[in-house]
Amino acid sequence: MSGTAARRDDLLGTYVPGTSWLHRCPLGLKAALVLGSCLAVMLLRSWPVSLTALALTALISATTGLGVRRWVASLRPLWFLVLLLTVYHVLVTGPARAADVVLSLLAVVTLTRLLLTTTELPRLIDGLVRLCSPLRRVGVDPERIGLAVSLMIRSVPWLFGVLSSLRDAAAARTVRPRPVQLVTPAVIATVDYAHRTGEALVARGLE
């Protein structure tokens, strides 16, 4: 896998084949545990709790074949956001609040990735569709919800890949672009991607 391709998967993660206990865990139970843990982290918003959850995700990654290196890579795309949040909260609300917010964010991201990296995307989407099936009674199509989530999961890593490719292209020309200089080409690429995705959906009878 190329460096750029690897970076595209850093944030949300992609399925990693395996036979660990987490891979074999029933989807409903696994999703409930992950969702419950994320809710606990966000509601308590306490840095010791978040730090414990973060450490547990690293331990689980190491014991389920995902690897600590992959766990560390999942945090790399967040460094700029983490830096901004840390500086803001240290200056405005104090170091303790900064630790609460930043560690909660990192814990939720790594918890979510445990679900995404140990569950095939089709199985995950099928589970979501089944969960949303009662909404048919009020006129909501669960299949469309599943399609929207699937597109989101695929599109976010793609967008990070575009940004990485733009930075690599600039570095190859020995240019260090400012973030604002990447906005225009990134927007153009994203609009083109959305247009092609829309055409593909229409071709399949989905509008």
TrEMBL record:
Bilayer topology: Multi-pass membrane protein
Location within or outside the cell: Membrane
Superkingdom, taxonomy of origin: Bacteria
A Pfam family it matches: CbiQ
Residues that span the membrane, as ranges: 27-44, 51-72, 78-94
Keyword Transmembrane: yes
Keywords: Membrane, Transmembrane, Transmembrane helix
Protein name as annotated: Energy-coupling factor transporter transmembrane protein EcfT
Originating organism: Kocuria rhizophila
